[in-house]
Amino acid sequence: MNHESIREFALSLPLATEHLPFDEYTLVFKVHGKMFLTLGLDAQPPRMNVKNDPEVNIALRERYDWIIPGYHSNKVHWNTVIADNHADWTLIQELIKTSYELVWQKLPKYVREGGV
């Protein structure tokens, strides 16, 4: 997997947008203005931060050596995923979706139901 496949997957989620708010190397994906994924464009292999439940984050870090505490993030809620050749693309997609859904669920009800 590469940066572009991660980017395309993130943008396939409803209302997902991409931004470069920090610098030209950190792509941030948001849903309705709320961040659900960061992707380091200068990292090889690709590295991304995703949000998840704190207990799930601990379990993921213990099980996979390519998942570590979130870099420059709240390490309780965010993990860094190193998308190298050992990483499971299906699991990475699930992690991105979970991060998106956690942020989506926190949006106001009128937004989730199709409001502005």
Explain the overall architecture.
The protein has one domain: Aspartate Aminotransferase, domain 1 (Alpha-Beta Complex), CATH 3.90.1150.30. The protein contains 4 helices and 6 strands, in the order αββββαββαα. A hairpin with a 6-residue loop joins strand 3 and strand 4. Strands 1-2-3-4-6-5 form a 6-stranded antiparallel β-sheet. The radius of gyration is 14 Å and the shape is globular. Helix content is 35%, strand content 26%. With 116 residues, the chain is an alpha+beta fold.
Question: From the 3D coordinates, which CATH architecture would you assign?
Answer: Alpha-Beta Complex
Helix-strand string: HEEEEHEEHH
The overall number of domains is 1
Low-confidence runs:
none
Class from helix and strand fractions: alpha+beta
Report the sheet-strand fraction.
25-35%
CATH topology: Aspartate Aminotransferase, domain 1
Basic shape: globular
Q: Please give the count of helices.
A: 4
Q: Write down the overall mean pLDDT.
A: 94
Any idea what the radius of gyration is? Answer: 14 Å
Tell me the total number of β-strands: 6
Question: What is the makeup of the main sheet?
Answer: 6 strands, antiparallel
Helical proportion? 25-40%
